[in-house]
Design goal:
single chain, 334 residues, alpha/beta, 11 strands, globular
């Protein structure tokens, strides 16, 4: 790991920004590496928050930017009018070499559009993909794309498979990750043309990639493969469905444990196990999705994240930089 890493932060992105952003930076710790932050945003809001935490002052530089990209801004409008926004200035800091990567909880479409225009894509990559990690019965699984590309060709899916395999190998530490394409069935004749053609390419290619074949929706949580590849429409629906299901089960469990006297007594004895389960599935601990395929490290935090969630998104960015994921992708596309 590098001795010092600088992360550019969009200080105004997110539902609870900038308070949530500064709280996330306050929580951040990475033993063995010096991480510093360039925080872009409206200084009159950011500086009082930073000054409340003396330990932050030495590791943070606040840079004032007059504009903010709203959650409702169209990507095309953000590109034209957002040059002085906190999001764009943070991206530009990476291009200028002042930072190694950027983290933002702001407008996803605007962030993708800006990052793609400024960073450009890596050689051999047509479209970047949003990738993140899911908790599973076997550990963790990488899922991509999560919404960057609503429609994908077979070539796009093959590129996603290669990038996802590199991500799993270098970030999750898996020596030979298995890769599957999300489909409506495991049979070779199932699915649309894009998934069938992509599967055929991966099965017959000389790539050093362990292709499992097709997987179904329930295989994601089961951890059947280490990397699940799909288009952005399907991936985003799968992500939001998983988030909603987790909230439903948490609500039902809470209701069952607090609705009766016996339930409350049982909850006391079950507390250690419940806390362990909560820690394993806490979405804040899996917050932080990378735009794979860009010629620069760009991590998207969930817009509704709190300080702990944003802290984890920063941790993802630091790990991606330290593990040189982009260099690994470049090598696999040579």
């Amino acid at each position: 790991m590098a001795d010092s890493i600088t992360i550019a932060i969009d200080g105004m992105g997110g539902d609870q920004a900038p308070r949530m952003v500064i709280d996330g930076l306050r929580r951040f710790r990475e033993p063995g590496v010096d991480v510093r932050f360039l925080v872009y945003g409206q200084a009159q809001e950011l500086l009082p928050l930073v000054r409340r935490h003396k330990k932050l002052c030495d590791g943070i530089e606040v840079r004032d930017t007059p504009d903010v990209i709203t959650n409702t801004a169209k990507p095309s409008v953000a590109l034209r009018t957002g040059r002085n926004s906190s999001m764009r200035q943070a991206i530009d800091a990476v291009v200028r070499g002042e930072a190694h990567g950027i983290v933002s909880a702001g407008n996803t479409g605007a962030l993708m559009a800006m990052a793609k225009v400024v960073f450009k894509t890596l050689p051999g990559v047509d479209r970047p993909a949003i990738a993140s990690v899911f908790p599973t019965m076997r550990g963790k699984t990488v899922l991509l794309d999560l919404g960057a590309n609503i429609e994908c060709s077979a070539e796009n899916l093959v590129q996603f498979a290669i990038m996802g395999e590199v991500f799993a190998r270098q970030v999750l530490g898996l020596p030979r990750p298995t890769v599957g394409i999300l489909n409506v069935g495991e049979e070779q004749l199932k699915g649309n043309d894009a998934v069938r053609k992509a599967a055929a390419v991966l099965q017959s290619s000389a790539l050093a990639l362990d292709f499992h074949g097709f997987v179904e929706g329930d295989d994601i949580a089961a951890g059947t493969v280490d990397v699940v590849v799909t288009d952005g429409f399907t991936g985003n629906v799968a992500l939001k469905t998983a988030e909603g299901t987790a909230k439903l089960y948490a609500h039902l469990l809470r209701s069952a444990l607090t609705g009766t006297l016996l339930g409350r007594i049982g909850a006391i004895f079950a507390r250690p196990a419940l806390q362990a389960m909560r820690h394993h599935v806490d979405p804040r601990l899996y917050n932080g999705a990378m735009f794979l395929g860009l010629n620069g490290v760009c991590v998207k935090s969930h817009g509704g994240a709190d300080g702990l969630g944003f802290c984890n998104a920063v941790r993802v960015a630091v790990q991606l930089i330290a593990d040189r994921v982009n260099e690994g992708i470049k090598q696999d596309f040579l």
